[in-house]
Amino acid sequence: MLVLVCTLSDYHQNPFASTHSLDANPFDDPPAQSASAQAAEQTRLEELRRREQDLERREAELNNKAEHIRKHGRNNWPPFLPLIFHSIRDEIPEASRPLVTRLYQLWLVLFGTLIINMVACIFILIAGSSDGGKDLGASIGYLFMISITSFLLWYRPVYNGYMKEQALYYYLYFFFCGFHLVFSVYMIIGVPSTGSAGLIQTIQMFSRHHWVAAILCTIATVGWTLQGVGHAFYYRQIWAHHTAAGHTMEKAKTELATHGAKAYFTRG
User: Fold this and answer.
1) Which residues, 6 or more positions from 2, have their beta carbon under 8 angstroms from its beta carbon?
2) What is the pLDDT of residue 257?
3) Is the whole-model pTM more than 0.85?
């Protein structure tokens, strides 16, 4: 009898009913994310966008470099007419980069001072100085001559010296930068008719109440002083480095005999 009751009970059960039916409709919208999950997703998306932008920026930089190399080779300086390759980050050892960077900045100060000096001489001429014509003519000559020769004769040699660690470059730097230090003192003094808007010219312009010329002469004097003192300071540091590295005149002569003038222009 017990067996019969069990059989009848099973008979009334739905044979298609699942014992593992879904508790929720599979076509319903997914449950809303919590605030923390949404914040995490937003952060992930922002990070992906940032990486995408960074990749696009790098791709643009590489394309620009490739186009520059196609047109000019590796040369990148001066920017408006690339003639040489100049990259402190790529060519100077890491330990020497700060010093070479400061020397380059001092050269930029020199270039800016030459421009201000020329403008000051224009106003000295306008102020009625009897030597204004001579000052202006000399200042224009300085702007072109000193800016070019200073870069080639003392900045480039010390740049190559730290890049290649060859004695010849250091001696070129010491020789020509020594002349530049003397020239800086000469320009700081500011003797009339010499093309310098230095100290004497500044005092004369103030005493005659030519204020624009006086202010420009003051700026020029400060520029000459700043770059002169900076060069004197780093001259000593470079001399100490050159001595510690064991560079001698004999080594410089050997390098000159081996490489000749070619060494100045090659990168190796």
Assistant:
1) none
2) 83
3) no
Q: Side-chain half-sphere of 252: how many Cα atoms within 13 Å? A: 18
Q: What's the pLDDT at 5?
A: 44
Q: Which of 196, 211, 189 is nearest to 114 (CA)?
A: 196
Q: What is the chain's length? A: 268
Q: Looking at the predicted structure, is the pLDDT value of residue 62 above 70?
A: no
**SS3 state at 77:** strand
Residue 207: Cβ within 10 Å count: 9
- Which DSSP category does 151 fall into? I
Q: How far is residue 74 from each of residues 1, 50, 66, 216, measured CA to CA in Å?
A: 103, 31, 10, 39
Cα separation of the two ends of the chain? 108
- Amino acid 132 reads G
Confidence class for position 256, pLDDT limits 50, 70, 90 = confident
